[in-house]
């Protein structure tokens, strides 16, 4: 009887120890599979970028130029850096945005849409940003990623010095990375500090 209980306990412990291996079997396989490292990485990157940057058309054919690189670590890093370069240099132009239904506006909307003499943001700027974010379904206008309101940036399509106002049609929603790219005067430096770079580098396995 005692022996049966011992076997039962040991068997249960073995099963419990195998559960994490089953749950993370894909990640474990990728970590220890040498032959398919680069191919698996590229598939992972394609899947991630298509889901999180749907508006940007990446050219995966250029990755072939790294095929002769023998060092797997260097090869994987070069692949990620190439995709980040494409992300940073993607051609984008801010355009006038669509309007929202009138019932989404508030009483002071029209009055506060006009340019202020001191170039300050209107008192209801936070509300305008949120309304624009809701209008765009929480997606970045440049890359198409879905982002939280607190992690978005609201920029003016037509700048105040050029006569632009604070009307919603002149407000574009961008993620942090795209906003930094739009404002950057040195893309080579900026692309090395993007959040996307950290996320893609995290998918590298060696």
Automatic annotation (TrEMBL):
Q: Which residues cross the membrane?
A: 6-24
- Recorded GO MF terms: endonuclease activity
Fetch the CDD domains from UniProt: HNHc
Keywords from UniProt, A to Z, are: Endonuclease, Hydrolase, Membrane, Nuclease, Transmembrane, Transmembrane helix
Record's InterPro entries?
Answer: HNH_nuc (IPR003615)
Q: List the protein's name.
A: HNH endonuclease
Q: Species name for this entry?
A: Halarcobacter anaerophilus
């Amino acid at each position: 009887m005692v022996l049966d209980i011992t076997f039962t306990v040991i068997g249960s412990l073995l099963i419990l120890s195998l559960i994490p291996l089953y749950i993370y079997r894909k990640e474990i396989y990728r970590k220890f599979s040498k032959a398919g490292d680069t191919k698996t990485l590229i598939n992972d990157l394609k899947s991630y970028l298509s889901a999180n940057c749907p508006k940007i058309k990446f050219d995966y054919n250029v990755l072939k130029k790294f095929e002769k690189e023998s060092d797997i670590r260097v090869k994987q890093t070069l692949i990620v850096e190439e995709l980040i370069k494409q992300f940073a240099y993607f051609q984008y132009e801010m355009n006038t945005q669509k309007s929202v239904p009138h019932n989404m506006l508030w009483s002071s909307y029209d009055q506060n849409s006009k340019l202020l003499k001191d170039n300050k943001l209107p008192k209801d700027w936070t509300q305008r940003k949120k309304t624009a974010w809701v209008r765009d379904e929480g997606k970045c206008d440049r890359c198409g990623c879905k982002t939280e309101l607190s992690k978005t940036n609201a920029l003016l399509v037509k700048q105040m010095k050029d006569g632009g106002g604070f009307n919603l049609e002149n407000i574009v929603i961008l993620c942090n990375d795209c906003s930094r790219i739009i404002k950057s005067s040195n893309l080579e430096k900026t692309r090395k500090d993007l959040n996307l770079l950290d996320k893609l580098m995290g998918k590298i396995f060696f």
